[in-house]
Amino acid sequence: MRRLNAVLAAVALSACTPTLELRDGEDGPNPMSLALKGMATTYCEILQTGRWERLPEVFEKELADQLIAERERAEVLLGATTSCRPGRALYLGGSRSFAEVLRASASERLDVWRGGDGRARDVILKDGRSLKAALASAP
Question: pLDDT tens for residues 50-104?
């Protein structure tokens, strides 16, 4: 019973982990922040130009292939792009970071795990849903 309570407490506390902004230091720009903001810039360029063949520059291969194959559904889920620019570089803890993307209606987050190839694994949509999960669900 104690072990179960300890596990439940750890899970509850992990949900409260704050997301911190990756700030520049005294030695100059934070390299991780620069990489995340560059990723967000490329993502915005792709959305604004419609050059979806560039998605592998931003996303892991599996997700990039899925987005290209299901472009129409992905465009509906992402919504129209009238303005798009990089926002903050955020760090959740452990190996998880986000590249914030500011759009006309709200913001999205490119979900990046450091253990991967340095590309985003998912997009957290403005309503908090996962783009990957939304694509996997029935149309």
Answer: 999 999 999 999 999 999 999 999 999 988 888 999 999 988 777 889 999 999 8
Q: How many other β-carbons are positioned within 10 Å of the β-carbon of residue 13? A: 9
Local structure of residue 7 (DSSP, 8 states): H
Three-state secondary structure string covering 19-77: CEECCCECCECCHHHHHHHHHHHHHHHHHHHCCHHHHHHCECHHHHHHHHHCHHHHHHH
- The residue count of the chain comes to 139
Whether the Cβ atoms of residue 56 and residue 118 lie closer than 8 Å to each other = no
What is the SS3 assignment for 133?
helix
Token pair 């803890």: residue: 93
The model's pTM:
0.79
Please tell me the distance from the alpha carbon of residue 104 to that of residue 86, in angstroms, as a whole number.
12
**Residue partners of 133: CB distance under 8 A and separation at least 6:** none
Phi-psi region of 50 (alpha: psi -120 to 50; beta: other; left: phi over 0): left
**Residue 130 phi, psi dihedral angles, 5° rounding:** -85, 130
